[in-house]
Every structure is written in C-alpha cells, then in structure tokens.
Amino acid sequence: MKKNIFLIKFYYRPEISYEDWILKVYVDDRNICEFTVDGRIEEDTGNLIFLSDWFKNNLKFILNKNDEFPLAVDGNSGIEIRKKAYAIGIKENKEIEWFEAVYEWSERHLWTFSGLEMIYPDVMFRRIENKIEISWDSRNKYKDNKNYKNPDNDPKGAWRSGDVRSPNYRSTLCFDIVAPNGNHIKPPTNGWRWSEKEVSKKISTGEIFFKDDFTGIVRKIYLCDQPGRTPENLWIGQRFGTTRTAAAMIKKLFDGIQVFDTPKPCELIEAMLQLASNKDSIILDFFSGSATTAHAVMQLNAEDGGHRKFIMVQLPEITDEKSEAYKAGFKNICEIGKERIRRAGKKIIEAHPEVADNLDIGFRVLKLDDSNMNDVYYNPSEYSQDLLSRMESNVKTDRTDLDLLFGCLLEWGLPLSLSYSSEKIEECTVHNYNDGDLIACFDEKIPDSVIKEMAKQKPLRAVFRDSSFADSPSKINVGEIFKLLSPDTRVKVI
Fold first, then answer.
1. Over the chain, what is the mean pLDDT?
2. Using CA atoms, how far apart are residues 120 and 132, in angstroms rounded to an integer?
3. How far apart are CA 263 and CA 243, in angstroms?
4. Residues paired with residue 134 on neighbouring β-strands, in sequence order
5. Which of 43, 140, 226, 415 is at 20 to 30 A from 475, Cα to Cα?
6. Helix (H, G, I), strand (E, B), or coil: what is residue 142?
7. What backbone phi and psi angles, to 5 degrees, belong to 439?
8. Rounded to whole angstroms, how far apart are CA atoms 108 and 55?
C-alpha cells in the first residue's frame, strides 16, 4: 500500500523579514494551500499567510516534547482527536478539565482548531522524539452516507440503526416483544414506535431484528428509502465549492469574461440534489441567477443516468452598463442564464460522450404575460359598425402561433416540457405537441383538405382560431370532419 508523503517546504526570502515565512504543506504531493482558477494553479494566499503565522506562533509548543496530548487516542489525525475530545462529555468537573485541556492542546497542534471562522484541513503537527510528525486525515470524512453500511448483506442494501421508541406515551404501544428464545423484551417508557401488528410485520420483513443476546431489538433505516435527507456533516468549500471557485468556473465557461459576480458553486447544488431528489425529480429554482441549478441538474444526470428536469425562474434584471456582462451583449440576467445552460450542456456532452444520446440538455424559455385574448367590455350603447370591424379577431395582434399554442397547453393542463414539432401542409403551418397530444393550426382560411389531413393523425386534441374560417358554415364543417375521421378528438376554436 502506498504511504502518504508529507513534505513541508520553507522558502527563505532574504529581502523580507523572518516573520514573513512562505510555508507550503504537501499531502500526497498536493499542496493543500493551492486552488485552481481557469486551469491555473494559484496559491490560497489567505491560507498560506494564516498557516505560516499559526505555525510560527505554535512552533515552540510543537517542538516541546513535554507538551503531551492529555488523552490517549488510537491514531493522531485531527478528526480522531476531535472525536475523542467531544466524546469525553461534561458531566463532571474532571471531564470539563480534560475537555479544556484537549481543546487547548489541539489549538496548539491542530490547524483545524485555529478558527477565524474558516475551515482548514485536518493537518496536525507534533513532536515525536526528534522528529516533527505531520498527520493528515486523507479519508473522505465528508461523505454523507458514511453511517449507512451493510454488514449482514441485506438485499435492500446499506442501512443504519434507528430509534425504536415512541416520542409520546401511548398505552397501546406498551407491550412485550417475545424473542425467538422466549425472552420477553420490555417496552421503553413511552412504548414502542409501532403497534404490535406493525412490529410483527417489520420482524418478518427483516426491518427489525433481535440483538445477539435477545435482550433488545434493532431497527434498520435503509439508505434506499431515504430519497430526501438532511446532511449529516459540515459542508466545506474543499468539496462543495466556494463563491470564488464558482466565479472561476463561470468565467472559464464564458471564455474568460466574468459575466456574473456571485454565482453559487455547482458542486454545492449537485450535493443538495443528491440528498433531496431522485432521478426523475423536477427541480425548481425561483431565484435562478446565472442558472447554476440547471448546470448542476445536467451534470448530475450525466453522472448517474438520471432524467431530472429543471425549472428556472428569474426576473429580467438589467445588467450594469459598466459590467463585463453588459459589454459582452448580455443586457439582463436571464440572457446570462440561458447562455450558460447552452454552454454547460455542450461541455457536459463533450466530457461524457457515452451518455450523449440519452442526456437531455435542451430547454425552453417562457415569459410570463397576460392573456392571448382581447378583453371586450362594452355596454350595448357603445357598439358601432367600426367597433364590430375591429372585433373580427379575438386574439391580440402581437401574439404568435407559439403564444397561442402554449396558451392552450396551460388551459388544458399539459406539461410545457414535452416534444414539439411543426410541418407544412398545403402552405399551412400545423403544430404537433407530444406526438398528437395536441395538434393546432392558426392560419387564416384553412382549406378542408388541410383539416382532413390533421384529422387523419387522430390527435387527442385539435385547436384552431376563430379567424381561421371564412364563415360559420366552415367552422361547423371542421367539427363534422373530425366526427367522421377522428371521433375521439376534442376540437376547440379560440
């Protein structure tokens, strides 16, 4: 097994004082004080300065062999020390003293404890005989599912133990459970979590099993049954990104232009989706900004084969005329989000060619507006011949065919994300939504031959506009054609 390599490099610069050391900490040949921006490796100056200063201030303790850790631990990593320290408890004064001693020692030897409202790696320095030992917890201790294991090869997969006690007292939940050896297991103070019938069922399915000595029961909480869970740890920037790394990502995506100042890290949103969604979820972001959520959804779908969909909602906030975004042609935030989705989708496909055929990176842009129909509120005395001529069409003059189509989708309660196509039939544009869920034509004076071709497709719904017909007999004829060729089609004229 390859051993971790720990290397500290001190760079002495004679032009500056001894107080200004440059310290680099290497773990597995990786400088933990470095980060990547636009493909360039840059030093985290803040971390370097603070680590250097902390190391200088605590070197005397690190070198002092008498400065011993006040509690025996298995291993010496930072996470192990913290685990042991907090396990002491504060029930007695002696334990409080131990806790304080451990914490003070850790502040002198463990960088993580150094504070300043920042999260640092679990790097610990201490003297062992004539050497300075550096320990580093290289395990993925931030993994959210670490408490779920499968020691008994349960076919349902990983599980953890759960509470079997009722949170509130109920007499009906207070009963003995008889173990296979005949032992009677008494109920907790408030009773069991389930009824006697439900307990028997859970025992039969294996969700509840008896302890080896038959003195108690264990409940299994399966990971596969937890589609939405709260995180079980602290989410730090090393794994879940920071505003800085997010800004670097979007800058690289837009060819070096900083189009958005405060994007959210894609890694953070992806982690949230892993906890709180399944592969077929619809993800709604009401303040989408630069569309980080859409980016994360597509990325996660590419990684786990999911079919999640996203809905991004954003007001068209105007970009500052002095900003790089405005100069690049993005007049509002929505335009930035749309372009990011396009670029991110293309990049994800390039990175995952194996899923290119099944990964949906498409999207539609919908804008909130008022009704497509004209509002007509007149008293009888206000009607005139001129008014009647202006009422020939009940559809607003600035509305397109797609405006009318999607208005119909909303009225019928159809999803707005399904497939769409259009075709020309005798110079008339015919719209087909989701392969026949709805078929529509909004052209003027549609000939019967076109209507017959539409009816032959046997759609579930057919829509026309009132002005599509020359006169009332033509409108009536549409219904007759569909009754003959496609009697199950619901025909609507708007």
1. 78
2. 20
3. 6
4. 125
5. 415
6. coil
7. -125, 140
8. 9
The pair of structure tokens assigned to 480 is 């007759």
Residues of the chain with pLDDT > 70, as a percent, come to 69
The Cα–Cα gap between 242 and 247 comes to: 8
Compute the average pLDDT of residues 78-101. Answer: 57
Q: How far apart are CA 366 and CA 287, in angstroms?
A: 15
| Stretch among 25-34, 224-233, 252-261, 364-373 having the lowest mean pLDDT | 25-34
Task: Look at the chain and count its residues.
Answer: 494
Q: Distance between CA 335 and CA 351 in Å, rounded?
A: 24
401 vs 298: CA distance, rounded Å: 30
- Do the strands 217-222 and 159-162 form a parallel or antiparallel pair, or are they unpaired? antiparallel
pLDDT at 435: 92
Model-level pTM?
A: 0.56
pLDDT band at 181 (very low <50, low <70, confident <90, very high): very high
Tokens of 106: 């850790």
Per-residue confidence (pLDDT) for residue 16, from 0 to 100: 41
* DSSP annotation string for 423-455: EEETTEEEEEETTTTEEEE--SS--HHHHHHHH
Integer Cα distance of 432 and 450 in angstroms: 14
Average pLDDT rounded to a whole number, residues 425-430: 93
Q: At what angle do helices 93-109 and 78-87 cross, to 10 degrees?
A: 170
How far is Cα of residue 390 from the mean position of the Cα atoms in its chain?
Answer: 51
**Encoded tokens for 33:** 């004080």
Predicted confidence at residue 148, as pLDDT, reads 75
Cα separation values, 259 from 244, 290, 325, Å: 14, 9, 4
- Tens digit of each residue's pLDDT (9 = 90 or more) over 7-53: 444 444 444 443 444 445 555 455 554 443 334 444 444 455 566 66
**How would you class 125 by CB atoms within 10 Å of its CB: exposed for 0-12, middle for 13-18, buried for 19 or more?**
buried
Q: Which two tokens stand for residue 144?
A: 């959210």
3-state class of 108 per DSSP?
helix
Instruction: Report how far residue 159's alpha carbon sits from residue 146's, in angstroms, rounded to the nearest whole number.
Output: 10
What six digits make up the tokens of 315?
């007001």
Question: What SS3 state is found at 66?
Answer: coil
Give the separation between CA 485 and CA 480, rounded to whole angstroms. 9
- Give backbone dihedrals phi and psi of 107, rounded to 5 degrees, phi first: -60, -30
Closest CA to 309 of 353, 360, 357, 265: 360
CA distances 142 to 113, 130, 145, 271, Å, are 17, 34, 9, 11
The most confident of the ranges 97-101, 163-167, 455-459 is 455-459
CA-to-CA distance for 120 and 44, rounded, in angstroms?
Answer: 12
Burial state string for 80-113 with b = 16 or more CB within 10 A and e = fewer than 16: bbbebbeebeeeeeeeeebbeebbebbbbbbbbb
- Residue at 213: amino acid letter: D
Q: Would you state the structure tokens that stand for residue 339, as one six-digit string?
A: 């372009």
